[in-house]
Amino acid sequence: MSDEHPKDQAPLSVHVERSVNELLIQLGEESMTDLYEMVIGEVERPLLTAVLIRTNGNQTQAAHMLGLNRGTLRKKLKQHGLLDL
Known about the structure:
Layout: H1 12-27, H2 35-54, H3 59-66, H4 70-79
């Protein structure tokens, strides 16, 4: 996989950083805990959904694409209520 991106498309990391910064600005001085888990949860579900759609629900292909073993993928799908996609 290449690190190059089309000129009109920023890398995913730029979008994530921008979103996290916006969240922190919105929080202001408010105390935040479990930020890491919240961000991972927000990113993981759409990632799993997109890959399942791309693989037509084939969990073996999805696990391979994600670099996970199938058991780990199924655990994550269950956590996010995505087992029926």
